[in-house]
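Objective 1.3, modelling of assemblies. Example input:
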Amino acid sequence: MRELGRELGVEAASLYNHVAGKDDLLDGMVELAIAEIEVPGEGVGWKEAMRRRAISAREVFARHRWAAPLHDSRDRTGPHSLSYVDGVLGVLIGAGFSPAAAANAFLVVDGYIYGFERRQSGLALDEGATATDAAEEVLAAIPEGAYPNAVRVAMEFATTPFDHDAAFDFGLGLILDGLERLLPGE
Amino acid sequence: MRELGRELGVEAASLYNHVAGKDDLLDGMVELAIAEIEVPGEGVGWKEAMRRRAISAREVFARHRWAAPLHDSRDRTGPHSLSYVDGVLGVLIGAGFSPAAAANAFLVVDGYIYGFERRQSGLALDEGATATDAAEEVLAAIPEGAYPNAVRVAMEFATTPFDHDAAFDFGLGLILDGLERLLPGE
DNA sequence: ACCTGAACACCGTTCAAGT
DNA sequence: ACCTGAACACCGTTCAAGT
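Predicted structure (tokens):
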């Protein structure tokens, strides 16, 4: 609050004339970020719509790195979040999924989108570091011949750089193909 | 720190004789939580091992509700985290995945585990609330005939309660089946 | 070796007082 | 209607002083 006030050339206390409090402010920021995710509607197949939506979400969360963790930590659902959920469910129901199946499918795809980013650090594969950096970091922290599999994977990525976009698309395609198999044949 | 000190019957300042600081403490807590996740090794098929591991992780994060978000927010990787990653990669490599494919598969499954829990709030499907509560909450917040799909799904869950475990298992099975299809036939 | 008390630099928030 | 200054109750952390 104090820092935001400084940035705006105003005292921290003045902010409370425009916002209810810090929580209110953070909720609003999340809403604005969610609003940037595009959910293709008519005109494209459900699979293509889901793929574009996922890539758009990933792009938005990459642009606003604070958004995904912030979204997770709050549970207030604003109008933009609701219409985002509504749009995705609409695509799935339109494709032939029952309402219950659409909810399940939404959770699988959305869970993946949100979970993918943050699990990369577990593999020491953060975007910032080069593959060699990551490999060295892992190898340096290891005592003896412990963690043989992690070492092997790290060495693999020392020679062949890890492609984040390709990895994300790999899992996304796998999930969408799995969902397609659930639809009654046409 | 002050609250923890109170709980231990000690002044907050005294804690710094045992811990480097708050960050150090939180890193240690995450490590202990991760250590509770069981990664089955030999003796079971890779698919069964992955499924048990996922269910164990979900159970641990349900028992320690602070663990998953805390794990996400820090990037230090301790020995337990490393051996967790190593164990999972070992199962996958042992199943016939290449090191690179194992890393991809790890990210898909692990991303799903971490993402699933927190996306439920987006559907107003939190464990605490009954299905009827959730439906009422969603319906009450809606102006006109807006969000028709979300309303339809909410009404569905008002009659048929949402089964979190089944939903998690649904997505997990879908992902594991997808991974199995990538393995060379035997 | 471990604890305490006091202090430091920081928070978010409130509120009377100004314009 | 909006801003300010001062204050409040809180943080994590440091450090000299005690035992």
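Residues 10-11, 13-14, 17-18 of chain B lie near DNA strand C (CB under 10 Å from a C1').
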